Amino acid sequence: MARLRRKACIAVFLFTIFIFGSLMGLRTLKPTDGISDLAPGLDFLPLIGGKLDRRSVARPPTPPAALPGQPRAPNTKEALSNSGPDGIVFYDVHIFYSTWYGAPQIDGKYIHWDHILVPHWDPKIAASYPRGRHMPPEDIGSSFYPELGAYSSRDPAVLESHMEQIGASAAGVLVVSWYPPGLADDNGEPTEDLVPAVLDAAYRHNLKVTFHIQAYHERNDQSVHDNVKYIIDRYGDHGAFYKFTTSNGKSMPLFYIYDSYLTSPESWSELLSLTGSHSLRDSAYDSLFIALIVEERHKHDILAAGFDGMYTYFASNGFSFGSSHHNWKGIKAFCDANNLLFIPSVGPGYIDTSIRPWNNHNSRNRVNGRYYETALQAALNVRPDMVTITSFNEWHEGTQIERAVPKKTGNRVYLDYQPHGPEHFLELTRNWAEQFNKEKAQWLM
Question: For a disulfide at 375, which of 45, 157, 346, 347, Cβ 3.0-4.6 Å?
């Protein structure tokens, strides 16, 4: 009997250890844990060395008085959804979209798929890593491989497929990376002339389009003033042009301003305050302007500048203050207290080592979708008005939810979504978007 009791005690002890270990394993996926244990060690890259920040705008129960010289940010309530050829889509789920890819059949050469291997800024570290550029179509600047191959963003069939996929995900608004005419990122070519085709394709799928104004060379408050007028004059009457409907029924364009901290709050206020020297407030071009929050101090700069809200963009939990899930509750409270929108950005994972080979410590494993679900739940927990998805097709940084396929070449083995199919992250997005809008309907009651 004593031997049986010892065996029973040992069995109970081992079972207790198993339960405890399981609970601790699950805990690593909690959105409140901050930096994910799935891919620890994320250090923020030195692109935020600038001294300025961004500010957020969220909807409080009772709007406070506006600061002197600033407009009162509107209380906001979004028209939630509409039905298109790909099913119900939700206009409070926005997804970042890139049009910078090129292929020889359409563009005469590969663009962006042949991305350079970016050297580390420290020459001693850079010396330890390869240099050069990718050689499409077998070797592309991504750790995943698209189902459509190394495509051109100008291909009408590609655009149609993209709109179908986005509609299948239930995201209702494309946030198009935008440069003024004639300008582009360092590795691409101008794409502003593609906007009409994107708008037309989106319209056929009952999707909307807004703009992610990039940090092009010499961007400032005056140039953004001109950009906004250009965009609204050129595209504002299109059926797919996105407008946010405020609680008082006013429809306003909405613009995301990437790396907004590169311009001082004082300069932004010339554009965004009622008394600014080239203010857009109370004009035909008045809009909602959403700034990027990276560091904690940015929220105060965003407020002082006169922005209407803030978003977090980066898909890496722990990568920055703004992208860390455990900080979202505090950011949301700040926004609510100041009548700002808080728009958290969530993504399925992160891996950019195909173009930044020295940056492996910033990778975030997808864990078959669990990382994404954790981020989505973290966003839902703070009850935002809107959510952004990073991204539909930022293949270089491995944040895409676009369909990807297994691929192996002589020199490379690409990551994929197995054991799930190519649609896995589109399906996860739809399931969550439906849940988000069910819960949101109850929050607003």
Answer: 346
